[in-house]
Structures are given as structure tokens and as C-alpha cells.
Amino acid sequence: MRNTLQGFKNFLMRGNIIDLAVAVVVGTAFTALVKSLVDNILTPLIAAIAGKPSFQGLTFRIHHSTFTYGLFINDAISFLIVAAVIYFLVVMPLAKISERRRSGETPTQDDPVLSDEALLLVEIRDLLAARGTAGQASEPPKGL
């Protein structure tokens, strides 16, 4: 029982789990902020230009069902704002960092350090690639 609890504690304390939890909390707070921006500022602004006081009241009825397409418009605006912020503040900067790393700029302190096993695997991969490009036909080992 103690080993199980220790294993569970180790699982929870891994960096990835904590980072994910922080990301969910920040994402939830950011979503509330964007929703407030859309509901309280952008929707009334766009609705004022379009001549309607609010998108929330935009509905139509078919038989006895009411479709609130105005709420969908609000949600679409929220999605576009969140997607734009993620693209411009996360995706583009990470792409630029990745491009710099590929171009051979000096590594930073945040670059991962390969273990001895990983370095050995890289060396084996490079040797196999060199062997394959030399035009040598390799035969599988006997007995396999």
C-alpha cells in the first residue's frame, strides 16, 4: 500500500502534471476574461453597428423550438479572439525560437541535454545512415 501511495505521489509531482494543471487554471481564467470582453464590449459594439442592442436576443423559431443563434455568434467571436491570441502570443514566438535553433544559433540554457543512452543511439543512427548511403548491401544476421 505504501509503494502504491508513493508511486501516486511521484506521478502527481512530475513536472508535466503540474504544468498541465497550471495551464488549465490559466486557460480557464483567460476564457472567462475573453468571454467578458466579448459579452460586455465587442458584442454591444458590433450589435450597435448592426442596429441590434445585443446578439443574445437573436433567435428564430421552428414549430415550438427556439434557436438562439445570437449566442452562437457570441461564442464564435470568443473562439476567434482566443485563437488569435494563442496564435500571436504562443505559436508565432515558439516558431521563431524553433527556427533559430534549426539555423544553428548557439544553444541556450533551456536546450535539453541528451543522456549517454540517447547520445549512443544518435551515434548508432548516424553510423547506420552512413553505412546505408555507402551503397553496401547489408545482410541480416544469421540465426534470426
CATH homology superfamily: Large-conductance mechanosensitive channel, MscL, domain 1
Instruction: Output the CATH class name.
Output: Mainly Alpha
Largest sheet: 2 strands, antiparallel
Helix content: 55-70%
Low-confidence stretches: none
Brief summary of the model shown:
The protein is mainly α and 144 residues long. The chain is 69% helix and 4% strand.
Describe it.
The structure is a single chain. The protein has 144 residues and is mainly alpha-helical. It has one domain: Orthogonal Bundle (Non-ribosomal Peptide Synthetase Peptidyl Carrier Protein, Chain A). Helix content is 69%, strand content 4%. The chain contains 4 helices and 2 strands, in the order ααββαα. The protein has a two-stranded antiparallel sheet with strand order 1-2. α2 packs across α3.
Summarize the SSE layout with pairings:
Layout lengths: L1 H12 L1 H36 L9 E3 L2 E3 L1 H34 L13 H18 L11
Antiparallel strand pairs: 1-2
Helix pairs in contact: 2-3
